[in-house]
Amino acid sequence: MELDFFGWLVRLLAAAALAGVVGWQRETAHKPAGLRTHMLVGLGSALFTLAGIDAFEGSDPARVAAQVVSGIGFLGAGAIFREGVAVKGLTTAAGLWAVAAIGITAGAGAIGGAALATFLALIVLEVLGWVERRADRRQARDAVRIVVQFEATDDLPLALDLAHRIDPAAGPMDLRRRPHGITELVLRVAPAKVEAMKAVMMACRGVVSAEAD
Prior knowledge:
With 213 residues, the chain is α+β, with helices and mostly antiparallel strands. Helices cover 62% and strands 15% of the residues. It contains 7 helices and 6 strands; from the N terminus they run H-H-H-E-E-H-H-E-H-E-E-H-E.
């Protein structure tokens, strides 16, 4: 199937525009991959798909699309990073992957399907994001404050790592100096994990006390 210039234009513009909608949401949320990145991913995916359909005689569009998916996997991996024991960027990587799929779909000519996928992606990012934030605020409100006192801070990095292993949402953390060489670490943890957190903190070297406040 050969497309004329107008056919290429419509599909490429649709891919860029739909990807841009998702990118704009990420831009306003102050995420690392924003409007331009998402538009380029959508545009590039659509262009590869169109090339597989129309530009190379005898090519298999499905194989071209599969290679696009593999390439986006490498791009998405670059958006994932570790911050302490927490892993960041998973939603950004998943968003780039979804935008690539939207671009492939638009490039294949199923613009209605690409538009539907864009709408669903916005629901996931906006509506479910709001639900997650509300749940996090409720968890923070119900959290129990634990004060851990250290005489020596050699095991402090281990204590922080263990705290996040027991309760990944443990926080906010506050570290402050007290008289007589005491260092105080303040954690906020889920009520069900208070006893486990206290026991693990007490097992760390240099810990004087770990009590719920």
